[in-house]
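agent> Task received from the user: take the single chain below, predict its 3D structure, and emit structure tokens. No templates, no multimer pairing.
agent> Plan: (1) validate residues, (2) run structure prediction, (3) serialize to tokens, (4) report one or two observations.
agent> Step 1 OK, no nonstandard residues flagged.
tool_call: predict_structure(input=
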Amino acid sequence: MRKRLDVILGAWNGGLGDQLQFSTLPEEFYKQQRRETYLADGSEFRNKEIYDLVWGLNPYVKGVKEGKRTAGDIPEIEVKNHTGNWISNWEHLHGLKPTNTRPKIYYEPKKIEGFEDTILVDFTATSLKFDGVGNGYDLNRLAWTYAELKDMHPNKRFARVVFDQTVSESKVDVDCDTDVVVTSIYHYCDLMNSSYGLWGLHSGSVALATAVQRYNESLNVNVFVSQTLYGNMLKWLDDEVPPFGAFYLDCVDYVVTL
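)
tool_result: status=success, residues=258
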């Protein structure tokens, strides 16, 4: 029998969400096709913790390999919708049976007491635009929409996410009951696993929250999106090739800014 070729996986961008969108592929390549996955030599990551969490702990990633990328967001793949979910769609586009609807991490988050009724508010982002143009967020609309939704949850404690290292800063000042300082990406996973919900932007923290939903099934994830960005997601669902940023998951609630 002819040996199946190894997979060389990589993403064009080094952000958390950019990496998590491919996190289910190595395990599925191995289970479905008996192929080993390696990361493409020279792959870049926004910070080392992203690499450690997404790939370093993944037992189906065998190391780093030189050569042409054969998996990930490679030019040969047209990212049209076949499954209605961004994660399972990547599996389909790579010739796999679609199995997962969420990203996957191999770190098992811990429980932290006292967060059962807490909603984590993470309005940080690195690559999003905040000029109200195109996919960009209008900060006033974002703040108004948040305030409207917050008023509908009077019995919850709202905790603003603050990173003790300069990972990213909040893009809009909204009313919260307290701040919670995140000391590492693993601590963030623990907080998500312990909380009632996470409200965030269309960024890596939301992708991470959906991965944590595998451990905390009741975690409520609200994603605040601009009207244009949400419209681009709907175009992708209608089988159009998406403009930049149409990453769509059906396991979260999308909140379109007013």
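agent> Step 4: summary for the user.
Strands lie at 7-10, 37-40, 61-65, 71-72, 118-122, 157-163, 178-182, 197-201, 220-225, 253-256.
agent> Done.
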